[in-house]
Amino acid sequence: MLQNKSFVKRTRGGKITKVVREHYLRHDIYCGAPVCKVCDTSGARLSPTASTILIFDTNVVLHQIDLIENPAIEDVVVLSIVLEEVKNRNLSVYNRVRALCSNSLRKFFVFSNEHHKDTYVTDMSGESKNDRNDRAIRVAAQWYQSHLAGSAKVLLITNDKENKRRAIEEGISAETVESYVRSLSRPDLLDLLVQPASEDVKMEDVEDLRPSKRKVVYSEHKPMSEITSGLHCGIYHQGKLRVNRYNPFEAYVGSESIGDEIIIYGRTNMNRAFDGDIVAVELLPQDQWHEEKSIALADEEDEQEEDVHLVPGSADDAPRTTAPHGSAGVTESVPNRPSGRVVGIIKRNWHSYCGSLEPMAKPAGGGGIAHALFVSKDRRIPKIRIQTRQLENLLDKRITVAVDSWDPLSRYPSGHYVRTIGVIGDKDTETEVVLIENDINTRPFSSQVLACLPLLPWFVSSEDLANPIRQDLRQLRVFSVDPPGCKDIDDALHCTALPNGNYEVGVHIADVTNFVHSGTPLDDEASQRGTSVYLVERRIDMLPKPLTEDICSLRADVERLAFSVIWEMTAEAEIISARYTKSVIKSCAALSYIEAQARMDDSRLMDPLTTDLRNMNSLAKIMRARRIERGALTLASAEVKFEIDTETHDPLDIGMYQIREANQMVEEFMLAANVSVAEKILKHFPLCSLLRRHPTPTREMLEPLLRTAAAIGLNLDVSSSKALADSLDSAVGDDPYFNKLIRILATRCMTQAVYFCSGDLSPPEYLHYGLAALLYTHFTSPIRRYADVIVHRLLAASLGIYKLPTVFQDGPRLTSIADNLNYRHRNAQMASRASVELHTLIFFKKRPTDTEARIVRIRSNGFFVFVPKYGIEGPVYLTPRGEKGGGEWYVDEQQQKIRKMDGSISYSVLQTVFIHMEIVEPQPNRPKLQLSLV
């Protein structure tokens, strides 16, 4: 049956045109209920014993998704009109609903009411879109009711009073969410309900939340019409709010309109904005902008101190610094930064948060309801007020809580309990917290995704070998060099001496796109996950294990499919020619970095594989020197390596990660392959290539490094990456660790490298500052990075092997993919660091330790130290907590020294001190590593 829908629209030229769309209606769309006596029930998704079938309206799905995800809620019909409206209003909730509908263990069925001839509703004159959708939902509920003819009760769940009233008038059973949940006799489910904002805060509760009766009142947010007008006139400035990871009372908003960051001091000026919110900011008068001052080391105890809200400093947390492991302080400030206050929220970034509960003094209310404050593990998140009926059971648990609203009369936002993670302090619980906090998807791969995989055992077939697009390179002596125990081997190498004195060098990368086809469920899942995540004791894969550890992994002594970049190079590592080909390889050895290094160092070994390694290493050294000569930076980071107990998975030892020549050799050829591929794909696809850039750091960002260098008599030239690289090379002192410390400090000042679509920026902006490369991309790790999968498709299309997928013609979609990759890449990094921090706490819990440390930053009441042996940074206090410097200590900011007023003791930046390290718990459920002078 055909239904025509027509509407008028204005063209770009200003003309009015009528658009007619055909809407097909069918009568054979099944209802999904096994009890149905009319439909084909072979594809039924609801329970055969279902006594009640639920239909939710759009607002219930949008606002009560935490309840809907609970296993107690089942036998749900999700109407297509609801699904479409949810998709338009909140993509995150839409994805969660889709996950429920595709989960074979949950009884959710999507019914296409908009395409069923009995449930489709035509537009009525004068009816709003919202009213039309409500009517469509009621019509579908009524159809189900008559269709099932009493075999099961059909219940419409809506909190809309008018929608409920009309439903009952039309003979439909309808209830509010709360009344339905109460009927289940599950009081714990009531904790999951989102309370309407109007019921958020009762005035008698407000005073209970304010210690010392200190009144905290926030300004009302400006309406969107006023914000839009203010942005247009330049009165307001838009940007993403980033809260300082180590001082939750300080944030910044990157504003393109003024070309600088606006610093926001104190909760009052943040005005109920959360980290990650898109906000509108009004600049404060210039006399209220803070000059640079010495700032105290922020600590957990400061959270209840009102005066800490006004401590000036920098929110230089992300994306431009690398947070040190175990660090707990505030980064440097910059003089005369614009200060402002939030006047409105343009887009909220609320999600679920992990933490624990603090009971409140307020006694339990009716029905055993207790009031509690939720304390997030992430200090950037304010405490959240919740009501719960299970307080006693939750006090020793890590839980997740979602925010519902934040009334301007309440010091705290209001939220609701979502779920219990586990017992506080349990390693598995705390690891799950790390994953949830960083939005890492740990769900098992769905049956639709797994259906895309080839059957095991998998072998290279005769068809693969006969395929004209694929070159047979099995005769080459190919090998891989990876970290010990690596199973997801992305890359392999070969180096063959040629009769003319040159070398043929190949980089062979797992041909993942041979198995991951564009637009499939497997590809969609990999696109969303974006990257594999590496924790201390486990790996969360981007692709299913059969691909990562078997089919795609370039293991030794098995034939595998690859995408190869092959150069002819002179003995001076000059590239004469480059070619790209799909290939079949057979690796002869899967070496660890230690094994490869041992082979190269053992002069008795003269076998062909060791000779290849030495030749590659010689070429790599020349390439590295040439890259550094161009201005590439050799930076350093405090990477930590744990030795893990194979049974308990607890850390047995901890130390700095050691970089060997073998590591640098592999890195050099991977960099060269990435640059070669970037040049190739950009030449063919100048508008839709996925590249990676590293923006040049500003002078302000390098200020902390320059100040530290000046204090020790070191003159760093930061006019270019080449000048900085040369300066770092010449920064050599008597202390063998001196140069590495300076390089670590330089790393902290860098911007974050990001993926981008070539059509979004001009060529000068493509620069990768750290590598001193005009062009760069990621090609060499498609097993664990989706960016590389995209680049493989671009390279294959540039060679005429395959057609470019249609997504590459959609500029906004490509930009969205790049944004997601940056988000996922950063979250994976943060999760890895948090995992290191967790295992550091576990390691030192039973091992108080005295060790050597270096001072890296001076503050008014102490200094930050870096512990070389363990790669840990943290604060050492010289004055009692609560004192903001001064007293018996004097700070010389210029010389970066702190000394006693009587001159008896002084400390200076980069000085060696001896410290004691132990785990303390100054606040319940927030253990931390405390560093103190011996």
Automatic annotation (TrEMBL):
It is found in: Nucleus. GO terms for cellular component: cytoplasmic exosome (RNase complex); nuclear exosome (RNase complex). Residues 52-165 form the PIN domain. Residues 298-336 are annotated as: Disordered. The keyword Ubl conjugation does not apply. It holds the Pfam family Rrp44_CSD1. The keyword Glycosyltransferase does not apply. GO terms for molecular function: 3'-5'-RNA exonuclease activity; endonuclease activity; RNA binding. Residues 470-801 form the RNB domain. GO terms for biological process: nuclear mRNA surveillance of mRNA 3'-end processing; rRNA catabolic process; rRNA processing. SUPFAM superfamilies: Nucleic acid-binding proteins, PIN domain-like. Its main location: nucleus. Its cofactor is Mg(2+). PROSITE patterns: RIBONUCLEASE_II (PS01175). It comes from the Eukaryota. InterPro entries: Dis3_CSD2, NA-bd_OB-fold, PIN-like_dom_sf, PIN_dom, RNase_II/R, RNase_II/R_CS, RNR_Ribonuclease, Rrp44_CSD1. Keywords: Exonuclease, Exosome, Hydrolase, Magnesium, Nuclease, Nucleus, RNA-binding, rRNA processing. Belongs to the RNR ribonuclease family. This is S1 motif domain-containing protein.
